[in-house]
Design brief:
359 residues, alpha/beta, Rossmann fold, six-stranded mixed beta sheet, two-stranded parallel ribbon, 47% helix
């Protein structure tokens, strides 16, 4: 065989293998970019940003749970039983309001969604309406658009091929059952996750007394208005047939202490007031806040860090929302925010460290 012929055969073989690998990704489609799951294959749910768009477009449902990692431990089985729906869960850990809203609006356009349960993290109120968070890595926009030319990043993705497709083929050949990983476990905490005072206070040296509390500036106030209007209020008004259960996650007392110590607590409460007022103008938004449930928030056995709570707390939040408990209304908003100011600005945060050192 001449060197020229060998080279042509080699190049042909490389091209053939590349085409076959790309075809395997397109056919199995572990990120649901082109179609719903195929029967007979088992689909692992493990990459929220890469899989959520496909789930939103191609799965069958009439309700959804979405938001940041504060929805990770919600169980769709409990949600379905409580609300009489068939739901998906599409969490976006660390996501901005814009990132969550873009996916949610896609779901609302593709399906007849009756209920949306969505976290509204007040940590992300004071930022632009189009903010994209880069701390979670590059956003896979090629999986969200309809441009076929950039899909090569999907076809020839090493992680997709070896982390998803090959295990799917192996499971099929060995006779393992097909299906899709349960949304109950999707993005949820590992069963070995530890919760408690040590975890909630991890990395904390104390709570220095702030020299002053920072005010909410006019530009920041406008940022909150734009952010909430664009990403929460406008989608709700555009879909009056859908009820939105928006909840402010119950961050632990450690997180409240951090805000107090950094001098941002007053600013945060004022940002909340603006956001709440805007959401309460929508008849189809049911708003919930658990900040006056101090038994929950001060019990650090509920938390794996300063902001993330246990699956048991997540289950409780669903039940409370279904029962209308801790719902914020125009009549009780002022009372709730006044409570926040008095309780969290005067709490003895140093006692958390004293209790920790005595354990």
């Amino acid at each position: 065989m001449t060197s020229g012929k060998w080279m042509r055969n080699f190049i042909g073989a490389v091209i053939l293998i590349t085409v076959l690998l790309g075809a395997a990704v397109a056919v199995l489609d572990p990120f649901f970019h082109y179609h719903a799951p195929l029967s007979g294959f088992y689909y692992r749910l493990a990459d929220q940003r890469s899989q959520n768009d496909g789930i939103t477009r191609h799965f069958s449902y009439d309700a959804m749970i979405t938001g940041t990692s504060n929805t990770d431990n919600f169980k769709t089985s409990e949600f379905d039983a409580l609300f009489g729906v068939s739901s998906i869960k599409v969490p976006y850990p660390g996501a901005s309001f814009h990132e969550v809203s873009a996916n949610m609006e896609k779901g609302l356009s593709f399906h007849n969604v009756t209920i949306v349960v969505r976290s509204v993290d007040d940590s992300y109120l004071i930022e632009s309406a189009g903010a994209m968070h880069s701390d979670m890595g590059e956003f896979p926009t090629y999986l969200y658009d309809s441009n076929p030319f950039n899909d090569i990043r999907y076809y020839l993705n090493r992680d997709v091929l070896f982390g998803y497709c090959l295990p799917m083929i192996k499971n099929r050949l060995t006779g393992a059952a097909g299906g899709v990983e349960s949304f109950d476990s999707y993005s949820a905490d590992d069963p070995d996750t530890q919760y408690g005072r040590e975890q909630a206070l991890d990395g904390m040296d104390g709570f220095p007394v702030p020299s002053q509390q920072q005010p909410l500036t006019q530009s920041e106030a406008q940022m909150v208005r734009d952010n909430v209007t664009k990403n929460i209020v406008e989608p709700a008004k555009a879909h009056p047939e859908t009820t939105f259960y928006c909840f402010i996650p119950p961050f632990s007392i450690v997180r409240w202490g951090t805000m107090w110590s950094e001098g941002t607590l007053e600013r945060q409460i004022k940002a909340q007031r603006i956001a709440m007022s805007l959401m309460l103008e929508c008849a189809n938004i049911k708003l919930f806040s658990f900040s006056d449930n101090t038994d929950l928030i001060t019990d650090l056995s509920n938390y794996k860090d300063a902001v993330h709570y246990s699956p048991e707390v997540s289950s409780e939040l669903l039940r409370w929302m279904k029962d209308g408990r801790y719902q914020v209304t125009k009549d009780n908003m002022d009372e709730l925010l006044s409570f926040e100011e008095k309780f969290y600005e005067n709490y003895d945060y140093q006692s958390l460290m004293d209790e920790s050192s005595s354990d």
